[in-house]
Design goal:
The chain is mainly alpha-helical. The chain has helices at about 5-10, 30-40, 45-60, 65, 80-90, 95-115. It starts with 5 loop residues before the first helix and ends in an 18-residue tail after the last helix.
């Protein structure tokens, strides 16, 4: 019996797919695992990385748009939605992982606070980032 070449053996196998998760830069491996477990149970794959990037983009906008959630025209595309998902992650992750994620989020929060003012007409039941103008 002749030996088949490896390419012939692998030819019938399904092609490999890339990983269905994204990496949050700045978190160690244990925190990445915690984030992935959270995304599997309560969010969608890659939600924390997308939310962090969305929040960073919102803060980088020109000042007149930084607190305007209607700028994008879609509530799920604005930075406030990203910040809300980050808030979910910060409360749901174990302390050590949440501390690492908080270290990434806090500089962006400080920049947002420095660029915006409190909105006196905003309802008190809204999150703090939605009570800024």
């Amino acid at each position: 019996m002749t030996r088949r070449r490896p390419a012939q053996v692998r030819g019938g196998l399904a092609a490999r797919r890339s990983a269905a998760f994204t990496v949050v830069d700045g978190l160690d491996a244990a925190a990445q695992l915690d984030v992935r477990a959270l995304e599997r149970s309560r969010l969608t794959p890659g939600a924390v990385a997308k939310a962090l990037e969305s929040w960073r983009q919102q803060v980088r906008l020109p000042r007149r748009y930084a607190a305007d959630t209607a700028y994008y025209g879609c509530p799920c595309c604005d930075g406030g939605y990203g910040r809300a998902e980050l808030d979910i992650a910060l409360h749901a992750l174990p302390r050590r992982s949440a501390r690492q994620l908080r270290a990434l989020v806090e500089p962006v929060d400080r920049a947002f606070l420095a660029r915006t003012l409190p909105d006196p007409h905003a309802p008190d039941d809204r999150p703090w980032w939605e009570r800024r103008c």
